[in-house]
Write a structure and sequence with these properties.
Bound molecules: zinc ion
Distance between the termini: 26 Å
Radius of gyration: 23 Å
Number of domains: 3
Mean pLDDT: 89
Structural class: alpha+beta
Helix content: 10-25%
Largest sheet: 9 strands, mixed
Low-confidence stretches: 1-5, 11-28
Shape: globular
């Protein structure tokens, strides 16, 4: 798509949704809304509202109920009709879903499996308040927090543009961005978001998925290896900054049984004898892993293997595995997929005096920061 058209779409289509804050809680500033999945596949949802609210039909917007406060009510999937409910909070109202507070509107919808999903419709800037806290330490220098805010805003907006889901753009888990709702906001995080308000990264005028991860372990990787996106800002590059990260090097001992159980659950039945890297990228991350054993060897993508065993147990695909008795000892470098900005590297850069722009230019080369909206 022509980049001018893309930016135009961002500016026009996704701005201002008049239903947000329909009860007049905010001045008429333009909003870019993101739809964040906060609960999935639930039998019941607890809702609690302090302050005025309206419940309207999700599809037709018809007012179902209004009041000055809603004392802990449980919605059961079996009782809800297929249309779903939208919660419109009034002025200064606080909305809690399963005891966690969220800003913006809440949709309670029944999915195809007759389970409930809950989606938070929220201004992208307010969404970022909740994301950043879970992505980086709020005690880190402001320049790294600003860099993170711009990268996370870009990523969220990109997801909004490409989302194919009828109900949401982003899921609140590690596969998109971790979103903690209102309780994960702090002063320094809000400041970093506010100081960069409306700023996103573009490459050749186009928005792109600005991936990031905790620690690269010495070299970031090409996005093309995992997601098939081959553009200069998402190609791997050396990083000498993250050596102070606690995850720069890691070691993990796991029982062979534990790994074979997980492989079995994923449909791979094998009595493991050894784990070997078949192919690594230039950063050292394993592209293909060979699981040797009986009845036969299994070849898996390195990333797939990591996700099956557990991304928090095997922190990256840059590892060596050695069998010792009943255990497998993994020794590796870095934490995360290794693509885009290395957060611990960014932290070290900020401590050395680099600005947010320098950090972003380093990890996403060739990009520029542009401002969207009438901020
Ligand atoms: Zn790094």
């Amino acid at each position: 798509m022509n980049h001018r058209i893309l930016i135009f779409l961002v500016l026009v289509l996704f701005f201002y949704n008049p239903s947000l804050y329909a009860m007049g809680t905010r001045p008429a500033r333009r909003h870019i809304l993101v739809r964040v999945l906060i609960v999935k596949s639930a039998k019941e949802i607890n809702l609690h509202i302090r302050g005025p609210y309206r419940l309207v039909g999700f599809e037709d917007g018809e007012v179902l109920e209004e009041g000055r406060g809603l004392r802990s009510r449980t919605f059961f999937a079996k009782d809800l009709d297929s249309g779903g409910i939208r919660v419109l909070p009034g002025k200064r109202a606080r909305v809690y879903v399963n005891k966690r507070q969220f800003r913006g509107e809440i949709d309670i919808i029944k999915d195809k499996e007759q389970r409930l999903i809950v989606v938070n419709n929220i201004d992208i800037e307010e969404y970022l308040y909740g994301v950043l806290y879970n992505e980086v330490s709020h005690r880190w220098p402001i320049e790294v927090l600003k860099a993170q805010a711009i990268a996370a805003r870009t990523y969220a907006l990109y997801q909004k543009l490409v989302s194919k889901n009828r109900y949401f753009d982003l899921a609140a888990d590690i596969y998109s961005q971790v979103y903690g709702g209102r309780r994960s906001e702090t002063w320094s995080i809000r400041r970093a978001v506010n100081l960069t308000r409306g700023q996103i990264l573009t490459y050749n005028g186009k928005i792109f998925p600005s991936y990031y991860h905790a620690t690269c372990g010495g070299h970031t990787s090409d996005a093309v290896t995992l997601w098939g996106i081959d553009i200069p800002p998402l190609r791997g590059r050396p990083c000498n900054f993250c050596t102070m990260s606690p995850y720069y090097r890691w070691k993990k001992e796991l029982r062979i049984d534990e790994i074979t159980d997980r492989l079995k659950q994923a449909g791979y039945d094998i009595q493991l004898v050894s784990i070997e890297a078949l192919k690594r990228d230039k950063a050292g991350r394993i592209l293909d892993v060979l699981l040797k054993g009986r009845p036969e060897n299994i070849k898996l993508g390195g990333n797939k293997f990591r996700l099956i065993v557990g991304p928090n147990l095997i922190k990256s695909t840059n590892f060596k595995a050695q069998i010792k008795g009943r255990d497998i000892i993994f020794e590796g470098k870095g934490w995360g997929h290794g693509i885009g900005m290395c957060q611990w590297g960014a932290y070290a850069m900020a401590r050395k005096g680099y600005k947010a722009e320098d950090i972003l230019r380093y990890y996403y080369p060739g990009t520029e920061i542009v401002r969207i909206g009438n901020n």
